[in-house]
Amino acid sequence: MDLGISGKRALVSASSKGLGLGCAEALAGAGVDLIMTARGTEALEASAEAIRAAHGVSVQTVAADVTTEDGQARVLEAAQGVDILVTNAGGPPPGMWSDWERDDFIKALDANMLTPIAFMKALLPGMMDKGWGRVVNITSQSVRAPIAVLGLSNAARTGLTGYVAGTSRQVAPHGVTINNLLPGIHATDRAVSLDTGVAGQQGISLDEAKAAREATIPARRYGTRAEFGAACAFLCSQHSGFIVGQNILLDGGATNMTM
Predict the structure, then answer these.
(1) What is the rounded distance in angstroms from the CA atom of residue 107 to the CA atom of residue 113?
(2) Taking 90 as the threshold, does the pLDDT of residue 178 lie above it?
């Protein structure tokens, strides 16, 4: 399928690896020029060069901590006039409800709610002026069904979801859509981190921890960054203009719910 977005420009946050990289790769495959961000320069430059070589698109990189004012300013300077925004950030650390203090919540809100909102606030007006734009926020399956040990993520990402619910309806008349992708477990560093924690707690191997988690997923496997990226690219395409303010699960059926 031709997504109809060749030649457009996209900002993809936290895109040196994992799901952000999957989205960047899929958009580049559709002919989209990229601005890629991440904290680590080495991994970011390596991923950007691989995309340039594979797809022949323009890729600009900005190594920055986007939870800081300086980092946001540098990214937004490079991203002015983009047609597509994909927000993404690693999830907060797991723990129990009794573990977290105010500072822990502030860090989670900065990364997983306030930074995406800042990017939308800065870039939506330009999209609206052009009469076309796409925003995809990578959140979590925990928005639909809370995960007890991920309370920081539950709280921050659900806050972002509420913001998107209202904002998406306000910008839709201008040809701009905002939607959220809710990943379950995918084969990324985040999954390795979570499985390592389980392995340590239960005294089992990493492979055993992964196998136990896969058994809870109806698809009986972890998702891949490629299939996640393909879903993101479709939401950024010319074919998705009637999808507004939705929360789309990509979890292999793991979230047990009817609607």
Answers:
(1) 10
(2) yes
